Amino acid sequence: MNRIVLRRLAQVIPLVLAVIVLNFVLIHLAPGSLFDVMTAEQQISDPAMLDQLRHTYGVDQPTWVQLAKYIWSVMRLDLGFSYRQNAPVLNVIMDQLPATVILMLAATSVALLVGVTAGVLASVRVNTIWDNLISLAAVFFFAAPSFWLGIMMTVLFAVKLGWFPVGGMRTIGAGNGAFADALDVMHHLVLPATALGLFYAATYARVMRASMLEVFRLDFVRTARAKGLSPARVVLAHVMRNALLPIVTLLGLQLGTILGGSVVIEAVFSWPGIGSLLFDSVMSRNFPMVLGVLVLGSLVVAVANATVDLLYLRLDPRIRAR
């Protein structure tokens, strides 16, 4: 088991390295740069001054030299310096990363809770009105873009009904104390987490339904029923555990897309996470910040995928036996 854990964690290193190289090359191939924007904004046209600035920022060196220096700096936990924020890239990202992690965890919880519950209900009520309604809802939420769903939920639940805030993460001037602050954040979190999570809940519901129906046909389920176990115990203790294996695999594959989806959702709800930071950095051509967000995001997703793989081993002992 320890050997498997080490092997999974060792796979993270070449994956993150490949992401660094790919994103670094693509950003340098893109037209324009932060250097061009800064010199244009400050109206610097003197050739000698431009050459001096290029040497100061290191953009006069070959791309492979800049890449090698950047990889070495990443190994030292230095993601560069953001001249827009006038602060180290890592410091700026770490200030806004907790908001994105909270949003991702909440959206994943919504997706799993709604999707798994709907899939189980559809499988035990197969070919009934419940099955048809859940299938119809799954198709709708799968087809609806998250940003459109977020806007519609804001109009209905925030503007019309006034149940939730329109955007942001905290209410300015809200009550003091950690508990009051946590409640305020949760109140702001409901709409963005739901808008982001329902898309993935639709996928989980369909996969869970199909997986449950497949497990229902297996011999050990018939044996459990023949022993006189109650239908609820058969479903919860025997069928559901085995049917969850495809969901765990799917969860690992979709962690990256959930992080990517948070970029749009954070823009819609003004959520102060790295998604909105990435969007603003792209618009202002703050490429050191863009690259830093992509590198750190890939590291988070890679580690999360390795954790999901280990969870899969926990749920399915047959893999450990191999």
Given the structure, what is the number of helices?
15
Radius of gyration: 24 Å
What percent of the residues sit in helical stretches (DSSP H or I)? over 70%
Give the distance, in angstroms, between the N- and C-terminal Cα atoms.
Answer: 11 Å
Number of strands: 2
Strand order of the largest sheet: 1-2
The CATH topology annotation of the largest domain reads as MetI-like fold
Poorly predicted ranges = none
Q: Give helix and strand order, one letter per element, not per position.
A: HHHHHEEHHHHHHHHHH
Can you give the mean pLDDT?
80
CATH architecture of the largest domain: Orthogonal Bundle
Backbone shape? globular
* CATH homology superfamily of the largest domain: MetI-like
Number of domains: 2
Label the structural class.
mainly alpha
Please identify the top-level CATH class of the largest domain: Mainly Alpha
Percentage of residues in DSSP E strands = under 5%
Tell me about the biggest sheet? 2 strands, antiparallel
How does this structure look, described?
The protein is built from 15 helices and two strands. The protein has 322 residues and is mainly alpha-helical. The chain has two domains: 2-89, no CATH class; 101-272, Orthogonal Bundle (MetI-like fold), CATH 1.10.3720.10. A two-stranded antiparallel sheet has the order 1-2. The longest helix is centred in the middle third of the chain and has 39 residues, at 178-216.
